[in-house]
Specification:
The chain is mostly helical. The protein is 55% helix and 3% strand. α2 packs antiparallel against α3 and α6 runs antiparallel to α8.
Length: 187
């Protein structure tokens, strides 16, 4: 933190970013104590995920906002958990196409395109990272099965917004009616 106290160490099972985010923000790699219902990661996959997050933080184009880091982390974390559940290292994922074909199901549909971009960027940086998650063929196969996510706008207007709009319209009409003759005289 700003006072030189150690908040998290590289090998910790979770990294706390509250000094940077100015609010509670923790990235849990899944290899330490966990709550019931949370996903577990093997030590190998948690270490690979730590390496990826460290790369995002200190690589050539570092993440500048803690929220962006958290989004990236949770977009790809499920893929590492999938590899742990299947009993393979995430760095060996491209050797197991039947597992690689399940990656798209581990990502939220709204984050699938971001996940593909992140995986492509990690592939391009494979020499610096020292491992590959998905190669060209794996990325192509992932892209072909990604769900088409279309955001949908709801036609519902919340009451507080509706009330605000009605009040603003009433104020405009009252102002117009009060100054109608000045407007006519102007033209």
């Amino acid at each position: 933190d700003g006072h030189g106290h150690v908040i998290s160490r590289y090998g910790d099972s979770s990294w706390r970013f509250w000094p940077w985010a100015l609010k509670p923000l923790t990235l849990a790699f899944g290899d330490g104590p966990h709550r019931a219902g949370t996903s577990r990661n093997t030590l190998v996959n948690a270490d690979l995920l730590r390496q990826v997050v460290a790369w995002w933080m200190y690589g050539p184009q570092p993440v500048r906002e803690p929220g962006a880091l958290m989004t990236r982390f949770y977009t790809l974390r499920a893929m590492f958990v999938l590899c742990s559940r299947e009993g393979i290292a995430a760095s060996d994922l491209m050797r197991f196409p039947h597992v690689a074909d399940k990656v798209h199901m581990s990502m939220p549909a709204s984050q699938a395109e971001l996940g593909l971009r992140l995986l492509h960027t990690l592939f391009e940086q494979r020499d610096q990272l020292g491992f590959v998650l998905l190669d060209h063929e794996g990325l192509r196969r992932l892209e072909s099965v990604l769900p088409c996510h279309e955001s949908r706008q709801t036609p519902y207007i919340p009451p507080r917004i509706w009330t605000y709009q009605v009040n603003r319209l009433r104020a405009f009409l009252d102002d117009f009616l009060a100054h109608r003759h000045e407007g006519e005289d102007c033209f």
